[in-house]
Design a protein that fits this description.
Elements (H helix, E strand, L loop, with lengths): L1 E12 L2 E13 L4 E5 L6 H8 L7 E6 L2 E2 L5 H10 L1 E4 L13 H11 L5 H10 L15 H12 L6 E5 L7 H18 L2 E6 L4 H4 L2 E6 L2 E8 L3 H9 L12 E5 L11 H6 L9 E5 L2 E5 L13 E4 L1
Parallel strand pairs: 3-8, 3-9, 6-7, 7-8
Antiparallel strand pairs: 1-2, 1-4, 4-5, 9-10, 10-11, 12-13, 13-14
Helix pairs in contact: 3-4, 3-5, 4-5, 5-6
């Protein structure tokens, strides 16, 4: 569904250039539910804008559903945003029109698509559990209910890709869990590809793959040991979870095409690398060992970072 290779985005302001993405690589399979996490300024929201056709890359390659996003004309880009992709934003002011009812909000994109099908809007509200609130306006709905309406709107024109930018950022933990469960249910029942951008670690419990972005590049991936659906089945059968939440995923560092990887700053600080950009790199009995510039292989294990093959 999504293929990014060497993706670069540079924003220019006067004489200043800011690199938001610096050669990012990413692949997302059709029908996948995955999350992208990262600190503020890491480039995750910039990536989401690229995937949604709201911004164009400066360099690299990006294709979504077989469409080359760099070579797409403005007319084709409008059609792509209208027909192929749905958005859910954190700020409900971007999702909903306050003076319309929930049903009217969902009907609007259907009308823009040249169809007038109230039954389709009602079915979408039912799918997100809000058919009983169809005649309520924005101020009469809770934050979680507003976000459910936003998801129904995003699905109105049958998109193949759903992009959610911090969809639980303004919700409490209980509502966040309900929204994430809704994403899982939609992914399972209609097979839509869902990419969620967030800084919320709760997502790691809910999705099978989490991609971490740091400094404009993919730095690591976390893959579930067993799928979330399998874990729920085990719980329903009365089988206790075999791993703690911390052990539910396996984390992998990502190598770029030149064999480079990003080492987390906490790891470097743990081996005494603070005020230098140099580390000692050695291959010992099939194991790659990183030590501080003045360190050696006889230093305690807690001061040595080991990368096993």
């Amino acid at each position: 569904m999504i293929h990014c290779e060497g993706l670069v985005k540079i924003y220019k302001a006067a004489d200043l250039e800011v690199f938001a993405l610096q050669g990012l690589d990413l692949q997302v399979e059709a029908g996948e539910l995955m999350a992208i996490i990262g600190n503020s300024g890491s480039g995750k929201s910039t990536l989401l804008n690229m995937l949604g056709g709201l911004d164009r890359p400066t360099a690299g390659s990006l294709s979504v559903d077989g469409k080359n996003m760099l070579k797409m004309s403005e007319r084709d880009l409008v059609r792509y945003k209208r027909e192929s992709v749905g958005f859910v934003w954190q700020n409900n002011a971007r999702n909903l029109i306050p003076y319309l009812t929930a049903l009217e909000n969902v009907e609007l994109p259907i009308l823009l698509g040249g169809r007038r099908r109230r039954e389709h809007a009602l079915a979408l509200l039912d799918a997100v559990g809000l058919s009983h609130r169809k005649n309520n306006k924005l101020h009469e709905l809770s934050g979680g209910e507003q976000q459910r309406v936003a998801i129904a709107i995003a699905l109105a024109n049958h998109p193949k890709l759903l992009l959610a930018d911090e969809p639980t950022g303004s919700l409490d933990s209980r509502m966040s869990e309900q929204i994430l469960d809704l994403f899982r249910e939609l992914n399972r029942t209609i097979g839509i590809t869902i990419v969620i951008v967030t800084h919320d670690p709760l997502l790691a419990k809910k999705v099978n793959r989490v991609v971490s972005i740091r400094d404009g590049k993919t730095s690591s991936e976390m893959i579930r040991r067993i799928s979330y659906a399998e874990e729920l089945e085990e719980l329903e059968r009365g089988i206790a979870a075999s791993e703690s939440e911390e052990d539910s995923h396996v984390e992998y560092a990502i190598l770029d095409k030149a064999g480079r990887l990003q080492v987390p700053s906490a790891y470097l600080e743990s081996i005494g690398v603070k005020d230098t950009n140099k580390v000692k790199l050695e291959l010992v009995d099939g194991t790659i060992v990183l030590t501080s510039p003045d360190g050696n292989l006889s230093i305690p294990a807690k001061s040595t970072e080991v990368i096993k093959g």
